[in-house]
Specification:
By secondary structure, the protein is an alpha/beta fold. The protein folds into two domains: about 210 residues, DHBP synthase; about 80 residues, Threonylcarbamoyl-AMP synthase, C-terminal domain (Rossmann fold, 3-Layer(aba) Sandwich). The strands form two sheets. Strands 1-8-2-3-7-4-6-5-9-10-11 form an eleven-stranded mixed sheet, with helices on both faces. The chain has a four-stranded parallel sheet with strand order 12-15-13-14.
Length: about 325
């Protein structure tokens, strides 16, 4: 694709939100912060604009996008909404929950990858909300990174991965959650967990009073983040508790240090207190830092798979996946 001039703007800079909205309304691409990760936005009901997301990211057309809206009532413009969807929207929006519902005819095929459903959420970040308000239209926005690579939690991550491919980066500082949204399908009678994320499944189940069904993987993604290999740095990753052959050429990611990590080239501690919320926030930034060191390997020590730990381990297993396995 031809190179673009990418403009980095502080979100609080006077006129920055308005300029970014104009770029979107003209069919351009804008990266902006949400409470989860930075998203790469384009007009969600414009096929040509949404298509530019796939081109900029190198994203395959079979991987659907998420529509972002400013307010829950806007759901009815893009989806058929049932009682379970309204209940979850009332409880968790604005916030890091994406709902998958039968799509309306207003949503173009390219956004849903031809599926009969559409994924929608209302982000909680004030910059994202202000941008959506200024645009006045649904904005399609996957993570603002090259396809399959580490998710961006800072504007610098976005610039490193996509400079020259997009029009504007709105810098709103580091994201607060650090993990992508939880995705729930409410397209059928029983809600289905399609992707673990920033809201633990247990919290949603407690609110609904039912256990979420778990998605059975297929060869075609029903929603973003379902491919075996995803969220991967350039440096190979393994998830292991075993010793490594050459720790001097290896980076290590641990929930908290135990004092036996001194032989590794670099160590990233996700939370000195072992707090999984803090660990989730720090995860991608830690991997970005290790990936920049030119090491031979990154080793991730497993974390407990309760609450947000399930989402952390999901991301790490996908980062570590290799096609020849």
């Amino acid at each position: 694709m031809p190179l673009r001039t990418t403009r980095l703007m502080l979100a609080e800079e006077p006129g920055a939100i308005e300029h970014a909205a104009e770029v979107l309304l003209d069919g351009g691409l804008v990266a902006f912060p949400t409470e989860t990760v930075y998203g790469l936005g384009a007009l969600g009901l414009d096929s040509d604009a949404a298509g530019r997301i796939f081109e900029a990211k190198g994203r395959p057309s079979f991987d659907p996008l998420i529509l972002h809206i400013a307010h829950a009532p806007e759901l009815e413009r893009v989806a058929e909404v049932n009682e379970a969807a309204w209940r979850m929207a009332e409880r968790f929006w604005p916030g890091p929950l994406t709902l998958v519902m039968p799509r309306s005819t207003a949503v173009p095929d390219i956004v849903t990858s031809g599926l009969p459903t559409v994924a929608v959420r209302v982000p909680a970040h004030p910059v994202a909300h202000a941008l959506l308000e200024a645009v006045g239209e649904p904005v399609a926005a996957p993570s603002a990174n090259p396809f399959g690579k580490l998710s961006p939690t800072t504007a610098t991550h976005v610039r490193t991965g996509l400079s020259g491919r997009i029009d504007v980066i709105l810098d709103g500082g580091p994201t607060a959650r650090g993990l992508e949204s939880t995705i729930i399908s409410v397209a059928e009678d029983v809600p289905v967990l399609l992707r673990t994320g920033a809201i633990p499944a247990e919290e949603i189940e407690e609110m609904l009073g039912v256990r979420l069904e778990r998605h059975v993987p297929t060869s075609r993604p029903a929603t973003p983040g379902q491919l075996d290999s995803h969220y991967a740095p350039h440096t190979p990753v393994i998830v292991s508790t075993e010793p490594v052959a050459d720790p001097s050429r290896t980076g290590l990611v641990v929930l908290r240090k135990t004092g036996v990590e001194k032989d590794f080239a670099a160590v990233e501690e996700l939370s000195a207190d072992g707090d999984l919320t803090e660990a989730a926030k720090n995860l991608f930034a830690a991997l970005h830092r290790l990936d920049a060191l030119g090491l031979d390997l990154i080793v991730v020590r497993p974390v407990p798979e309760t609450g947000l730990g399930a989402a952390i381990m999901d991301r790490m297993r996908r980062a570590a996946f290799r096609e020849d396995e």
